[in-house]
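__Record contents__

***
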Amino acid sequence: MMSHRLMATADTKLGGSPESSLQSEESKLGSEESRMRSTGPVGSWESELASIQHSLKFVLKLREEFVCPICSGVVLNPQQNSCGHIYCFHCLQGLLESSSPSSPVCPVDGAVITPAEVFQDNCCKREISSLEVFCTNSPACTSVITLHQLQEHLRSCQHEQLQCTNPGCRAVLQRRCLQEHLTNTCLHRTEPCPHCGQPHRLSLIQDHVQSTCPDVEVDCPSSCSQKVPRHKLTEHRESCPEVHVFCSYKKFGCSVQDKRGKVKLHEDAGVNHHMLLVLRSNTNLEQQVGVLQEEVLLRQQEAQADGLLLAGLQKKIQPLLQQSSCHERSVATAQRTLNRQEDVLSTVQLEVQQVSRGLPGLEELEQLRKSLDAVMQEVSAVEALREHLGTLEENLKHQSGLLDLHAAQLSRNMQHLQELEATSYDGKLIWKIQDFRKRRDAEAKGQPLCLSSRPFHTGRCGYKMAIKAYLNGDGEGRGTHLSLYVVLMPGDFDALLPWPFRQTVSLSILDQSGAGNHRSLNFRPDPTSKSFQQPAADSVSNVASGFSCFVPLDKLETPQNAAYVKDDTLFVKVKVDMAGLENL
């Protein structure tokens, strides 16, 4: 074996001149050393066995020449020196680095190790790789494999020790037991909730069931005998017989409040009383409608009178405009005449100068004087016309100002009339937003960001409110969500109302497909917020409150089982909980 390796060395040197062979070996070893310093031999089975090379158990006793004289373990990736001894690649590399700048020596015979004379012994490598070893998990595993196949065997050996892959678990088990541990015994494994089916860590499932699982049946919070799935508690409240509610005739004046079941009995027993309340309320409404109709009629008469006045002013202005046009033409003509007369006057002045020089006769001087007088009269006439034109222009401006004032008053009367016809007094409003995509694109480009609905009231003498919408989102929802808010506005009866505003407000977008899958969110006002204090009389409104992320825009325009935007139109609904409010 030793002579064979020496022959390999000799063959290498016979390939060319000694100098070229030396350079080739130095270049080869230098590149190998560089690779070893950076990452080591990547992907080879020898590098994978480096950590266990001293614990390997060979079937036959390991031959002495296969033992590394540096680390005393089996040689991995053998490198042969000129003295004939072989070393592990990483052991030789460490020896070379630790001996710099002096030359390292062989630990067996003290021979100098010259990097140029070191080469990889592939023949020895093949012999070592085919040596048979016992599995490192013996005696539990009885497998016998060749050295270069050991790592491949360990990747599937059922007795290999592995750590549990469930987050938080530190258990180490043999591969044959790992699957059973992962699926059945590990306390950190993921299991589906027995109620909702959602995956959760086993240690957290109990907390999930007790506190958040939407499908767990819980006792009704109002202490009725029913058990209700947690996610249907709000829906159950609408029909629970133990919930305290007002009589449905409250808005007509009935003040009864009790459990829903007792209120139902009260409503059935008090039909006559409730009918009297309804009739009385209808009478009041008819009176109010009569007053409103009279007010509308008065407004219409005022609008007609303003229209007639506007038409009269237009008729008066028309002759003035025509007269002004005529005067402008007269002024232009007079200006041209004046220019001509100025030319004539210049000519006359020149002639006077010539006459003065030539001492003309008295008759010629008299004719020149008459011509000069005529020119002066014409100039005076033109100046009079100019003053008259200025007076006409001032009169025209005055009449135009009056016309603008009447037009503005007419516009305000028409707007007030439209508000009176459309005002809601029951705390509810359905707002129709047309041209949805055009308005949303305009918002995305930085044009008016906010849309406002017409005002609505919680009663004839109640709170005055409005809806605000950002079709392309506001704040956290900018560009991703529809944002909806409610805003309190100064009203005529604010001094008589309780403050701060405390009524629950519900905002909805309505499904236009007929399936009734409306999307709603509600909130209860924070009494400490300035948004719900009494609005200042000189302000437009309080700061709006609501939901900046009401619904994602993709779910708004392309929902699965609803049609919120249809024919480019969106319907937004607001409902104020009237519980606890009394009509003034």
In short: Confidence is low (pLDDT under 50) at residues 1-43. Residues 135 and 143 are 6 Å apart (CA to CA). DSSP finds 14 helices and 23 strands in the chain. The domain at 273-422 is CATH 1.10.287 (Helix Hairpins).
